[in-house]
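To whoever is on call:

I kicked off a structure prediction for a single chain this morning and the downstream step that reads the tokens threw a length-mismatch warning. I double-checked the sequence; it's 801 residues and nothing unusual in it as far as I can see. Pasting both halves so you can look.
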Amino acid sequence: MASIIAGYQYDIFISYRQKDNKHDGWVTEFVNNLKGEIESTFKEEISVYFDINPHDGLLETHDVDESLKEKLKCLVFIPIISRTYCDPKSFAWEHEFKAFVKLASQDQYGLKVKLPNGNVASRVLPVRIHDLDLADIKLCESVLESVVRGIEFIYKEPGVNRPLHVNEDNPHDNLNHTIYRNQVNKVANAIKEVITAIEPQEQKPEAILKEAIKPVSTLRKNHKVTIFAVSMIALALIILGLFFIPKLFKSGEQVIKSIAVLPFKLLSDEPDKQYLADGMMEAITLHLSKIKDLRVMSRTSVEQYRGTTKTIHAIGSELDVEYLLEGSFQKFGDNTRLIVQLIKASEESHVWANEYNSKWSNVFSIQSDVAQKIASELMVVLTPEEIEKMAEKPTENLEAYQAYLRGRYYTGQPHFSIQDWAQALQGYQDAVDIDTTFALACSELARAHARLIFLRQDLSELRLEKANQAAAKALRLGSDQPRVHLALGYYYLYAYRDEDQALKHLEIAEKSLPNDVEILVEKAAIIVTKGRWEEYIHLLEKAQQVSPHDVSIITDLAEGYWVTRRFRNTIDVCNQAIALSPNSSWPYIFKAWGYWSWKGPCTESRDALKHIGNTHEWYLFSWWFQEIGEGDYQAAMQLMSDTSIIWGTNNKMWAIPRTMFDAFIYDYLDEQELALSNYKAAMEILEKKVSDIPNDPRYHSALGIAYAGLGKKEEAIKEGLRAEALLPISKDAMYGLGILQDLAIIYTMVGESDLAIAQLDQLLSIPSWFTPAWLGWEIRFAPLKSHPRYKELLTNHAIFE
């Protein structure tokens, strides 16, 4: 069967070495699966050339059958890249791979084609079944004249490097976390992109015929007109040049170069050492961010490209940067190996590359050298101060530095977990214990302790004292270090919600870190505690311009839009974040909550919540309210039916026992005996918590609700007001909202309807998630619907969006 495009023998050519197929038939199985996937991807019949018995060595005569040369006239060439494929002695390498590259480079479409989205893709689509040696990678790149990328079918465990199979015995042990069926689908989609890009380039026969028979008389007739027109255009260009060229030379504005450092790979099969590769990447990124005339993408912006199959051109286009740095790192004993490649994204061409084989003791000088070499290659002139900053060492003790990197690795994990945070704390504590003068480690230790306070994981005096001691030591040892001040800004925010002190340290850090997007993000986090939501949104929008693909920034922006009741914007930015990171939970959560405030629980919010894993801290809470809002009380109770669970929700906003969720439903359905027994069970849990941790407002407000359900009016109001005193809205404009909501619920339950209405009026008047739509489905406020002022309240705060 011929190609779908005239002049080509096949659409796809599969090239491989026989030794990669003869033992377990991996290539044959892959081709069969690919054919099936192609059938469901293309409307047309796609032809695939696959020789079940290929040559595996060079022919002695070096005479290649003419029929093979014809078969190489294909649209897409798929080499199965193994540890043996990149071999100049193999037939597949010399007479298929190299031959196709030469043939395609000279045909009408070229080796690389422009995709409809503007990206560029190669017609060579490597399928990699092994991690390759550096020599093999360079050999491939020398032929392709670009970076080797493709779809990986590699199963990795410590000490394991083999092809991925359809049915793996232990798929969860695969360090690459790839699924065979998904990888096959990626290959089919990549093929479709290339073929779709090629098809529109065909010129219709009638257009060619029309061009060929254009009358000679017409050409002659228009000849004088053409000469006149060209002369006038030339004159106009000369005049424009006289006026504007001098201005171009006088312009003092300098074009800012841009770069992203992609996640470094680990050269060895030791996943427990990934933190070292990440540490090298982060250090080089930080050095580059010290250069005023260089725009550097944040680490969180590039994290999504860890293990990506996207082309360099596509990544550069998505991040809106000119250059990308790829790297691989390995530490073995006291020796290290670092391989870095600076690539111009638009051309996928190497600008500079180097391999550093050195001692671990030289790690800081290597980090500085890489950053300075990049600046040199990009023709960015470094000031003496910038060079001096790059030469600074965070510590003289390499054991302490390694412990610090472990802390940074666990701090940088995408979702907070107490296990990861314990590892981070231990890393920083080890670093400080090893080097008692390590200022940066002290500041990060203070920040880590303070975050546990902020997230209400530990409100003990001991935790605060540890944070204070680490912060004081960091300031004493590193008052001249910008990243110390950056960490201390977070410390003051997390431990004390002290906006003034936090901003003071941030301003000091900003002077030495002019292009660090984290400064903008931290500023936003600080000022929002005081209710400055418009400034919060402005800073995050500015941060997004600097780092447009940072999902955490976009997600924070979604929260800002949601609380300021810009629901269309909320949904839009959530969709942006989801497109960038489909596995992140928070964009789906804010999307669902945005719909709750805008329209109430609906099909759209339900669809969003389907993407939340059942281990997420907001899973039960979100699904319970979704079911309640849609009137399915039985489904809501089923969610809380696991009696081994104590808390229905326990996060930094609320701490509500599981039994209290059941009590809410029984109360609403007027099943008072069941409601009372569940309120009592919740009360017993919460009284103990209030006794153990008296300064946590969440337990006081939840206990107040339990008391209200049991008819203990005075005790209920007392607990609600105590919670408000511990965390007033003036102290935290976001987390104070939850306390105000609970006080409104208490007033409603104990019959103080006027106070409840006044509380809701406040919540509807300030930035919050409260809207008339929200009140319409929230069963805990149902008793207020008969109040004379209730309808007036909804009318006064109606939202027209």
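Update from on-call: the warning came from a stale cache, not from the record. Cleared it. Sanity check on the structure: DSSP finds 34 helices and 17 strands in the chain.
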